[in-house]
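Quick one, tokens below. Sequence please?
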């Protein structure tokens, strides 16, 4: 994936079929979500890379994801891992051309593709987190699953506080 380091932030080029707004709507589906926050069109996510806790402020402009670092700028090696995480999280390297081509011929998919064009499958790049969420997500309803996730993360995860806001890391295995 193409990206640029501008010392205080990085810019990640996105595919033409990418809709940041739809991705934020998906990520903001529960007020109980503890692993990221969305404020004023920005997505705040705490990542742990090489033992460092890095707060990322993720925005979007001119067909690019812009990642700022409100606390401190990471090293080049850490930046590469952050870019890799974000690309995997937002599924940026998947070519959707053949899917959209097929959907144009399907009367059920066509209206959905038009409505949600550019929405990517938001992933969980951490296998342990994905396995825990698969188990927790089997609860009676999504609201309760998010409540359990919040309790789990707050009990066993790490927290960083910045400007009065708490940012959480998912516990490690």
């Amino acid at each position: 994936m193409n990206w640029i380091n501008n010392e205080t932030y990085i810019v990640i080029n996105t595919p033409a079929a990418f809709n940041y707004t739809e991705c934020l709507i998906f990520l903001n589906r529960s007020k109980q979500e503890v692993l990221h926050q969305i404020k004023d069109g920005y997505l705040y996510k705490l990542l742990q890379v090489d033992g460092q806790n890095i707060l990322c402020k993720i925005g979007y402009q001119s067909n690019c994801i812009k990642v700022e670092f409100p606390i401190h700028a990471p090293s080049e090696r850490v930046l590469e891992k952050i870019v890799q995480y974000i690309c995997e999280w937002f599924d940026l390297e998947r070519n959707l051309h053949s899917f959209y081509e097929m959907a144009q011929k399907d009367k059920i998919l066509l209206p959905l593709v038009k409505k949600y064009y550019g929405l990517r499958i938001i992933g969980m790049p951490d296998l342990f987190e994905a396995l825990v969420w698969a188990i927790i997500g089997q609860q009676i309803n999504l609201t309760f699953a998010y409540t359990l996730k919040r309790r789990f993360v707050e009990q066993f995860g790490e927290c960083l506080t910045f400007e009065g806001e708490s940012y959480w890391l998912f516990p490690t295995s």
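The radius of gyration is 17 Å. The chain has a mean pLDDT of 92.
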